[in-house]
């Protein structure tokens, strides 16, 4: 449930006249770019922005400044439950009190990518269901469908009164966590969502209104102890998107999630996750209008002589291998490590991040390539190897920060859309095949896997983690036809509390290495202070890469 404390006023809420001046300054001469693009944001607590903190935005360099108003973007909102926080008409885009949702980063990215002005209408309420609260036919509970419809209509009428030309451009929806617990609502989610979309289009008289469905966050505790329920809702949302060309499913499960002292891995994205959540929606929208283009990072010249052998190093894992909280901007200021921010064309790099959310275009130069100006341990890993190892090296990285260790096993789980093993093995084979096609004998030097951070914080998963890892190691050796394939399994200090510590996961992983000489247990136990439980920040990620490289160089 969201906080409904006092909203920011005064300097942060600019008068409408000032907003219109700012809008006019941003408008181009072309008539179409004068039309205000209006987006609707709706859903439950992860759309509200529960557990986000405005004061923490400054901690994340790619999103600096989003704690301040965006005068050129109009914003109208109604948030909360029984006592709803409501904007005073249209205001400048800004945080809603001490919290915020995906609208802040969405607004900045879209406003900076198109010539037309934009506006956002947001209605969201935590702990609500599509089957009841948002039901357009027989609304119950908080009766959010008629409430939201009235708010949207009133906001649009206010634009008409000011003689602003506008058009509805898209509807961002993030909801489903509550329906998954209902015996009636869960199996009916696809039907209910289809009806919900149709009613909005009919009631707003916009037959071609596009909808963007945000994926439920699998990185939370619900992604582990409620996987079947979450899988049912995701499957329903994907089915709706597949059946309607104007509906897009937006992956978000790789986004950051913060820990909570009371509830472990809680159910909300938190500050960084909300900022990334908005970028995902923005990118999805920009793709539909042909405006989203990924920055090109071409490897302009192949660095190796034809016929020369190449050692291929495969990096794999979850949050810290992906580099969830390691930012390029901080790397550029890290003493002695600034050159890592530059592309290294001597080391070819191939990657699949977020299980395919972002992939390389063939082989690229080794350099920062994360989803949100982020990077992983591959940069310092490659530099350390290059300094000590003769010959050619290439790095391939496969990660999904929203996954758990059981998602990597050959057998997978009942949540079939989370199963990574087949994609991972295919990625390794493809990487080797690409090098061989260029005329190089290839040696797979090893798989460097950083064990799942979230699994260590949830007792049932921590209990099975070693068994799951062994299954993946054995399967990879079989399916890659490399029975002696080396695995370098790195581990950071696991969470330590009375309940979790009954499972000595450090000893369990050490036992695997003791019984299998081709498994090396890498204890990365001195990576500096964490700003947050489980997640290593910039300096620690650089250090982790160096530790992994040393483990290889020192191996027999």
Number of helical segments?
Answer: 15
- What summary fits the major beta sheet? 8 strands, mixed
Shape: globular
Number of E strands: 18
| SS strand fraction | 15-25%
Unreliable stretches (pLDDT < 50, length at least 5) are 1-14, 22-31
Helix fraction, binned, reads 25-40%
Average of pLDDT: 92
Can you say what the CATH homologous superfamily of the largest domain is? SGNH hydrolase
Helix/strand structural class = alpha/beta
- CATH architecture assignment name of the largest domain: 3-Layer(aba) Sandwich
Oligomeric state of shown chains: single chain
Question: What's the quick description here?
Answer:
The protein has 556 residues and is an alpha/beta fold. Helices cover 33% and strands 18% of the residues. It contains 15 helices and 18 strands.
């Amino acid at each position: 449930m969201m906080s409904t404390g006092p909203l920011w006023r005064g300097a942060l809420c600019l008068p409408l006249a000032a907003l219109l001046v700012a809008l006019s300054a941003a408008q181009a001469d072309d008539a179409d770019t004068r039309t205000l693009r209006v987006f609707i944001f709706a859903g439950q607590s992860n759309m509200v922005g529960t557990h986000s903190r405005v004061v923490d935005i400054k901690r994340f360099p790619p999103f600096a400044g989003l704690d301040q108003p965006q005068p050129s973007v109009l914003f109208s909102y109604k948030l909360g439950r029984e006592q709803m926080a409501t904007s005073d008409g249209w205001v400048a885009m800004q945080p809603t009190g001490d919290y915020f949702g995906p609208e802040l980063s969405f607004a900045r990215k879209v406003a900076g990518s198109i010539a037309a002005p934009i506006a956002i209408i947001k209605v969201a309420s935590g702990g609500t269901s599509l089957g009841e609260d948002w039901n357009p036919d027989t609304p119950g509970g908080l009766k959010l469908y008629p409430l939201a419809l009235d708010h949207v209509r009133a906001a649009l009428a206010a634009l008409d009164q000011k003689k602003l030309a506008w058009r509805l451009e898209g509807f961002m929806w993030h909801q489903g966590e509550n329906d998954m617990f209902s015996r009636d609502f869960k199996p009916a989610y696809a039907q209910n969502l289809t009806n919900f979309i149709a009613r909005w289009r009919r009631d707003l008289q916009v037959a071609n209104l596009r909808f963007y469905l945000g994926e439920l966050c699998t990185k939370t505790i619900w992604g582990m102890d409620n996987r079947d329920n979450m899988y049912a809702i995701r499957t329903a949302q994907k089915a709706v998107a597949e059946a309607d060309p104007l509906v897009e499913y937006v992956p978000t499960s790789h986004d950051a999630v913060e820990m909570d002292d009371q509830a472990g891995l809680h159910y909300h994205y938190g500050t960084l996750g909300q900022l990334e959540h908005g970028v995902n929606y923005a990118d999805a929208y920009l793709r539909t209008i042909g405006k989203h283009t990924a920055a090109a990072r071409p490897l302009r010249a192949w660095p190796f002589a034809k016929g020369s052998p190449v050692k291929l190093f495969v990096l794999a894992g979850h949050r810290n291998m992906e580099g969830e909280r390691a930012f390029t901007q901080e790397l550029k200021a890290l003493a002695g490590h600034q050159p890592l921010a530059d592309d290294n064309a001597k080391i070819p790099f191939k990657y699949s991040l977020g299980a395919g959310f972002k992939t390389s275009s063939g082989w690229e130069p080794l350099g920062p390539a994360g989803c949100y100006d982020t990077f992983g341990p591959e940069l310092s890993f490659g530099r350390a190897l290059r300094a000590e190892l003769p010959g050619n090296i290439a790095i391939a990285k496969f990660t999904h920060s929203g996954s758990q260790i059981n998602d990597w096993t050959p057998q997978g789980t009942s949540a079939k859309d989370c199963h990574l093993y087949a994609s991972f093995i295919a990625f390794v084979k493809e990487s080797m095949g690409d090098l061989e096609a260029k005329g190089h004998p290839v040696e797979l030097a090893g798989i460097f896997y950083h064990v799942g951070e979230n699994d260590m914080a949830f007792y049932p998963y921590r209990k099975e983690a070693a068994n799951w890892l062994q299954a993946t190691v054995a399967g990879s050796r079989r399916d890659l036809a490399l029975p002696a394939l080396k695995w370098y399994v790195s581990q950071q200090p696991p969470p330590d509390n009375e309940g979790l510590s009954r499972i000595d996961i450090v000893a369990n992983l050490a036992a695997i290495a003791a019984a299998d000489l081709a498994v090396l247990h890498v204890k990365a136990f001195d990576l500096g202070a964490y700003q947050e439980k489980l997640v290593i920040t910039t300096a620690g990620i650089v250090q982790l890469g160096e530790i992994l490289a040393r483990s290889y160089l020192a191996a027999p």
